[in-house]
Design goal:
The complex is a heterodimer of chains A (505) and B (425). With 505 residues, chain A is an all-alpha fold. In chain A, strand 3 and strand 4 form a beta hairpin. The longest helix of chain A has 24 residues. Chain A starts with a helix and ends with a helix. The relative contact order of chain A is 0.08. Chain B has 425 residues and is an alpha+beta fold. Chain B has two domains: 242 residues, DNA primase, PRIM domain; 105 residues, no CATH class. Chain B contains 16 helices and eight strands. The relative contact order of chain B is 0.16. The chains are: A mainly alpha (505), B alpha+beta (425).
Chain lengths: 505, 425
């Protein structure tokens, strides 16, 4: 996409002719001139839309009625095409242009691309499903999407397999057509075992054709974003657009809780008590597992380590924290320095590509990298057996009625709401005035309520005073040697870093 | 000297000998150049070495077999990992513009590690294995091998013993090497049934109807379940293990079974009671599969899915030595899968010793060879090619050769087509 040069061109297309299709694959970028203010307004609206898509996908059953209604009303409110049978060229134009603007803002990193693609694909699915059967066929035809159907004979032969493969697909019968496509074209169906697979081909019931179309859309979009990323320097040289695009890509991840502002506001001795008072359940669970097993596997170290970074642990503190715990287990100090210290410094952007990683949001915890054998990470509301969750909540003294309310929310797949309910119950507030989307947000809100936020802050305004404060508190008598230790660690870290450089890591 | 006599302290002394005279470089190069169908396929492949004291060197690459040999003989890596084929030579990755150095292709790989079964095996834990729990690996290989072939249509699967406590699979078909990261993760997820971490007791939930893939996998598990789980692991014998099994059945059934079990101690009969319950308790509207779920939770392969997902993920190379056990990472011949014994896999000390035990007639040939001295290098070359044949490594290299022959047939057609094209122009 050549954005910069395109802006100079003046092409006037009668909009009505350009936007005859209710839904498109966004193959061609828009060629008209638009004003900066329209540019910005379109972009912000689409972001709001995609954000709604994301939130609805988490808090509601995807593809359920509520979900559909929510998306429809949001499309309507933001002036996007919401009913695909009405021709509204203005709205379609906005859909087209805003999509391409966001491509510019969201092509820059792997994380941004993944987020953007996921939301666009979900949006596309919603809109494709809204098409009439006739429109669907037209869409396939116009976009050259042709799929092979299998013969009646083959269908008869594979009867049992086909019927047993279509779990969750309502109303599949052998009366309908089945398409036979390379499995690579139907990844979502393969992943969830919703189709029969034989010798590299997926057999797809007609009703699931949307999955192949989506797969195609996803592939195209992914390629297009990679291309866009390459032409990005040209766009970035445009000083009108660059700040705007950066703002767009940052703003909608919400606050990033990366913790730079909080560095040094927490002492290691506070962690145990904070874990009980102000950590969300997921982090409390990780903390407990770490203290008990003196070890956490990679997924847990990332989720918990970045959270701790977010609440204000410095690199030196983090190294000390993890090391003290690990060496009580099977790992000796030498092994820790060799095998695990890298991982911690990496989190703080001191290794590898030196990206400063941000703590995981609830969305990321819920949706990506589910825990497996030996793991304690993930979202306890999403990734626990209800029975175990119940026990745990009881153990943490949540009232029976509270437990039931939480389990009800979990049942409805409202994991974040369940967590927020847990927050309210454990903090004795009726209605917490925020919408929970991040473990670090949970922590901050909790500290605010407990008045601890100020405490923590005051404690570290100057190192001097923090010493006094903690000395007064008593349990932190070991503070002095700890500081020496961390100094020592810092030196070691420096040495290690040069070692790693030597080995071309 | 038996293979259990390996001493990790000897590794620095043994590795030079291994890389000079035993490592099957010719076959290794033949494998990774894939018939030269794509130019610079070997050259752009990342290798990474783990050297003494855990020094880890990434982004190594080599232009020829000779260069690879020379470098390995110089560095004597404790461990070799294979990575992706990149857009540029990995050893020059710093010289290309950032972002344009990208992993393009790699075999589709699977890593199954016995530690992931710790909650369902009672014989060993963590890095330990025994012949009893090795059955889990046999089951894993049979299930995945079938699915990758029949469901996904792949043909060239190299199964390798990791040297300690697990197995790796390298799917080498061209189509597999070209899979995107999304496709790899879809395949891996299709093949993963055991879900959930320490906060989930029940890791398998089946829904009706049972997908043909799960049906096929269950029939593999059935072949082993009685002997492995009921007899050897005795999962329905001891009190605690019985409780663990019963935690996987619905509450109403659990109580009944607990009653039944008080009068029935025989594990196989107890299992039959569970199966009968599963059948008896199902209504027409809702089938119950807790017996099948138990079988799968105890026996179904547990994949490290992250290894399979990434194109650029590194995996320990075949014929690399495991530094802790000294065992060579050898290809597994599936024709004799049930007989494969990880403890019979040769260690580096064993094969190095076998090498020293020169047979008298070979001593003879050797002295004749040296008398001739016509072409010293040639002789050395020949000798090296023969050396591994005198050791227990021979049968594994032979199997590797057979695997490569199969692969070669697949690219023959491709090469012919290419040369035809060239003639036309």
């Amino acid at each position: 996409m050549q954005f910069a040069s395109r802006k100079k061109k003046l092409v006037s297309n009668p909009k009505t002719e350009l936007y005859t299709e209710p839904l498109q694959f966004y193959g061609q970028p828009p060629l008209e001139n638009i004003s900066l203010s329209e540019f910005e307004a379109f972009a912000v609206d689409r972001l709001r839309l995609l954000k709604t898509v994301e939130n609805s996908g988490v808090s509601m059953v995807k593809r359920g009625d509520d979900y559909k209604k929510k998306l429809e009303s949001e499309l309507k409110a933001l002036d996007f095409p919401y009913r695909e049978d009405v021709e509204e060229p203005e709205k379609r134009r906005k859909d087209h242009i805003s999509h391409f603007i966001l491509r510019l803002a969201y092509c820059q990193t792997e994380d941004l691309r993944r987020w953007f693609i996921q939301q666009e694909v979900d949006l596309f699915r919603h809109r494709f499903k809204g098409l009439s059967p006739k429109q669907k066929l037209e869409f396939l035809h116009k976009n050259n999407l042709q799929y092979n159907t299998i013969s009646g004979e083959e269908k008869e032969q594979l009867k049992n397999e086909l019927l047993n493969s279509s779990h969750g697909v309502s109303g599949v019968s052998l009366e309908h057509d089945f398409y036979k496509v390379p499995f690579q074209d139907a990844l979502d169906l393969v992943r969830t075992r919703k189709v029969y697979l034989k010798e590299g081909y997926a057999y797809i019931p007609q009703s699931e054709i949307v999955a192949i179309v989506l797969n195609d859309f996803r592939t195209r979009l992914s390629k297009a974003l990679a291309l866009t990323a390459r032409s990005l320097p040209a766009v970035h040289s445009d000083e009108r657009l660059q700040p705007l695009l950066n703002h767009l890509s940052h703003s909608y991840f919400g606050q990033d809780y990366s913790g730079q502002k909080n560095v040094g506001k927490i002492s290691l001795e506070q962690i145990d008590s904070l874990a009980g008072k102000s950590f969300p359940l997921c982090m409390r669970q990780l903390h407990k597992a770490l203290r008990e097993n003196h070890h956490l596997r990679y997924g847990g170290r990332m989720q918990y380590g970045l959270f701790l970074k977010g609440i204000g642990l410095s690199l030196e503190q983090a190294l000390q924290f993890w090391k003290m715990e690990f060496i009580q287990g099977k790992v000796d100090a030498d092994k820790f320095d060799k095998a695990f210290a890298y991982n911690i410094r990496h989190m703080f952007g001191k290794e590898g590509k030196r990206a400063d990683y941000t703590p995981y949001s609830c969305m990321k915890v819920i949706l990506s990298n589910p825990p497996s054998q030996g793991d304690y990470h993930g979202c306890p509301f999403r990734h626990s057996d209800p029975e175990l969750l119940k026990q745990k909540l009881q153990f943490y003294k949540v009232s029976p009625s509270g437990v039931n309310q939480i389990l009800e929310l979990v049942k409805g797949m409202h994991y974040q709401l369940a967590c927020q309910k847990y927050f309210e119950l454990t903090h004795n507030v009726e209605d917490s005035a925020f919408s929970l989307s991040h473990p670090n947000q949970y922590f901050i809100e909790s500290q605010k309520l407990l008045g601890g936020g100020k405490d923590v802050k005051r404690e570290t305004e100057t190192p001097q005073r923090s010493q006094e404060n903690s000395a007064a508190k008593g349990p932190a008598a070991a503070r002095e040697p700890a500081a020496v230790e961390s100094q020592h660690l810092a030196e070691m870290t420096a040495n290690l870093e040069t070692d790693f450089l030597k080995t071309d890591f | 000297m038996s293979s259990s006599d390996y001493d990790p302290a000897c590794l620095p002394d043994l590795l030079p000998l291994y890389y000079r005279r035993l490592f099957p470089f010719a076959q290794y190069y033949r494998w990774l150049s894939y018939g030269g169908v794509q130019k610079s396929y070997f050259q752009n492949r990342e290798f990474s070495f783990t050297l003494k004291d855990d020094i880890y060197v990434r982004y190594q690459s080599f232009s020829t077999q000779n260069e690879l040999e020379k470098e390995m003989q110089k560095m004597n890596p404790y461990k070799i990992d294979i990575g992706a084929v990149y857009s540029h030579r990995p050893n020059q990755h710093n010289t290309v513009k950032s972002g344009s150095f990208q992993a393009l292709e790699k075999e589709l790989v699977f890593d199954i590690d016995m530690t992931d079964y710790d909650d369902v095996r009672s014989c060993c834990s963590a890095a330990d294995i025994c012949s009893k729990c090795w059955t889990l690996m046999t089951i894993a290989i049979r299930i995945l091998n079938r699915a990758l072939r029949d469901d996904f249509g792949f043909q060239h699967l190299l199964w390798v013993y990791s040297g300690r406590r697990g197995v790796h699979c390298w799917v080498c078909d061209e189509a597999a090497r070209k899979l995107s990261a999304a496709a790899r993760s879809a395949v891996a997820e299709y093949l993963s049934l055991v879900k959930g971490g320490e906060e989930n007791v029940k890791k398998i939930v089946l829904t009706d109807p049972i997908h043909p893939f799960i049906g096929e996998s269950l029939s593999v598990v059935e072949d082993y379940f009685t002997r492995y789980a009921l007899q050897e692991q005795d999962i329905l014998g001891r009190r605690e293990s019985v409780d663990k099994v019963l935690a996987l059945v619905p509450e109403d059934v659990r109580r009944e079974l607990q009653q039944f079990f008080q009068n029935e101690r025989n594990p196989e009969k107890r299992w039959k009671l569970i199966k009968d319950q599963a059948r008896a308790k199902q209504t027409t509207a809702k089938k119950r599969h807790f017996d099948k779920e138990i079988m799968l939770q105890y026996c179904y392969p547990r994949l490290d899915i992250n290894v399979s997902k990434g194109v650029n993920h590194l995996l320990k190379s075949p014929f690399s030595v495991h530094p802790k056990t000294g065992r060579i990472s050898v290809p597994i011949d599936l024709k004799d899968l049930d007989k494969f014994d990880p403890f019979a896999v040769p260690t580096i000390s064993l094969i190095c010793e076998e090498l020293d035990r020169l047979k008298p007639e070979e001593e003879q040939t050797k002295s004749e060879d040296s008398k001739e001295k016509e072409n010293e290098k040639d002789t050395a070359e020949k000798r090296k090619n023969r050396d591994y044949k005198r050791t227990s490594l021979a049968k594994y290299v032979k199997h590797f050769d057979q695997f490569l022959d199969g692969l070669a047939r697949s690219w023959k057609g491709e090469l012919l087509r290419k040369s035809d094209l060239q003639k036309e122009f």
